[in-house]
Every structure is written in C-alpha cells, then in structure tokens.
Amino acid sequence: MFGGAQSLDPSDRTGDRDPVRPLLAAIDRAVADHTLAGDPTLIAVSLWVALRGLVTVELAGALDSTAAETAFRSTIDAVLRGWATPAALSGLHLTDRAP
After folding, report:
1. Could you give the CA distance from residue 87 to residue 33 in angstroms, rounded to a whole number?
2. How many CA atoms lie within 13 A of 67 on its CB side?
3. What is the pLDDT of residue 26?
4. Residue 38: which region, alpha, beta or left (left: phi > 0; alpha: psi -120 to 50)?
5. 3-state SS string for 23-82
6. DSSP-based three-state secondary structure for 13
7. What is the pLDDT of residues 57-92, one digit of tens each?
8. I want to staple 84 with a disulfide (CB 3.0 to 4.6 A). Which of 19, 27, 74, 88 is the partner?
9. How far does CA 78 lie from the centroid of its chain?
10. φ, ψ for residue 83 (rounded to 5)?
C-alpha cells in the first residue's frame, strides 16, 4: 500500500491481504453512522496520502519511533476531524485531541 507508484483502487484485489477494502469498509461504517461525511473513497485517499508521506519520512530515517507514533496519531486525528460530521465533531472535547 505504501511502496512504489500505486493507485488506491479497491477493485484491484491483492488477495486476502487487500489493504484497501478493510479501510473502505471502516469508512463506510463511519459514514453510515453519520460520524464522517463525504465520499468514502475520497476519505480513504486523504488518509492514504497523509500516511504515505509519513511512512516515506519514517523509512528515510527522519523520525525516531516516538516522533513517528506522535505524527501518525495526530495526522490520523486531523484527517478524520476534517471529514467528521458537525454532530460528531461537536461531541469531541479538547482533551480528546492528540498532542
């Protein structure tokens, strides 16, 4: 999912370890629950692009494990908050935010 030039294509099966379908299934559930709003594929692309950048930086040795963990958590948090519905977003508290 992160190596080489790839596209995020849920129809392009990679066997039992398809990295895209479980992500889209989770996003579909969040959209159905009105936690996230938007096209599930676009939400998945947002996560993929953000995390792909972090993986590239980590693999290059620019982040130690603590910095990488913090970056991953805060990036996922930021991307998901960007797609959150107003109702879901209003239910979050500042203490829920990643450092």
Report:
1. 11
2. 9
3. 93
4. left
5. HHHHHHHHHHCCCECCCHHHHHHHHHHHHHHHHHHHHCCCCCHHHHHHHHHHHHHHHHHH
6. coil
7. 998 999 999 999 999 999 999 999 999 999 898 876
8. 88
9. 9
10. -100, 0
The CA-atom distances, in angstroms, between 8 and each of 15, 28, 34, 53, 59 are 15, 16, 24, 14, 20
| Alpha carbons 96 and 21: distance in angstroms, whole number | 28
Residue 2 contacts residue 52 (beta carbons within 8 Å): yes
At which residue do the structure tokens 């209003």 appear? Answer: 90
| 8-41 pLDDT tens trace | 555 555 455 666 788 889 999 999 999 999 999 9
Q: What's the length of the chain?
A: 99
Q: Partners of 14 in the beta sheet?
A: 16
The CA dihedral of 44, 94, 57, 53, to the nearest 10 degrees, is 20
| 3-class SS of residue 37 | coil
Token digits of residue 88 = 């879901």
